[in-house]
Input
Amino acid sequence: MKTTVQQLSEKLATEEAVQFVKTGFETHLKEQLSLLKVSAPTVVLHGTGINDDLNGIERPVSFPIKSMQERRAEVVQSLAKWKRLRLKEYELEPGFGIVTDMKALRPDEDLGPLHSISVDQWDWEKVMSPEERHLDFLKQQVSRIYKALLETEAAVASSYPLLTPFLPSEITFLHAEDLLKQYPHLTPKQREDRAAKEFGAVFLTGIGGQLESGEAHDGRAPDYDDWSTPTSATTKGLNGDILVWHPVLEQAFELSSMGIRVDAEVLEEQLKLRQAEGRKELFYHSELLKGSLPQTIGGGIGQSRLCMFLLRKKHIGEVQVSIWPEAMKQEMAGAGIFLL
Output
């Protein structure tokens, strides 16, 4: 399908707006969390435990390295563990951290308006003291990230007057257990839709651990976020997702996954719960278990996701170059949505 002059103009305007959003948000994020920008790897070595397995089922892209006796490397899926190792090298004090542009490949994603095989996010990690391993500290950091989001939304509205701000002034904190009790007959995603529509912006804690019903709201690997530490008589988890209501798609829209990272005791417990104790022999896990790594908090914030949200786009392919099935491109074009 031939691109018209108007379509080309719209794409170029979107490209410019995407860079505006990314530059602005990164500046505000660094200020709010006291982060330094660093470089990031695109690959890590297989068998070290450094690469993240996300929900535990996603397959990383891997390949042999000729100059290293065919040792296999993996394209990163996220950098939660790598960042913690890097913070050990930098010897930063509590209260300071790093942020990087993470580019990943996730070939097991189901392609659609919200998901691409190409992942781009601000991966950040911050040193904290062991005494700060509690829910209030997590909420403080979430509120700082949300402030950076509000500042970026205001800047976008100032430069693009048609994009009126609509986020609430504060983010609401909920636990997955709360949503389960309120909407017991809905799926986890349907519960997220209800909460996001009601409050506009939600930080949902308790992601990965088992709820009272025996189910988990969503999956999390056992070796980066802490999803098992009790936070009340009925709730667990020092991690969560930032969800907002997308007014164009009319659904909950995840912008970030983050949390306080496991310490040695929590790692032992979560590996046991997931029957993954064999990982303790891997380099990353052994370093953590012997106390060689700093206590940190961190997460990933979707770059294309944030642009899609603030620029009111219906498909992630409008703000990110990736690979799409031809049938999907034709369908989107028929609806007036042109993918980059």
Q: What stands out?
A: The chain has nine helices and eleven strands. The chain has a mean pLDDT of 91.
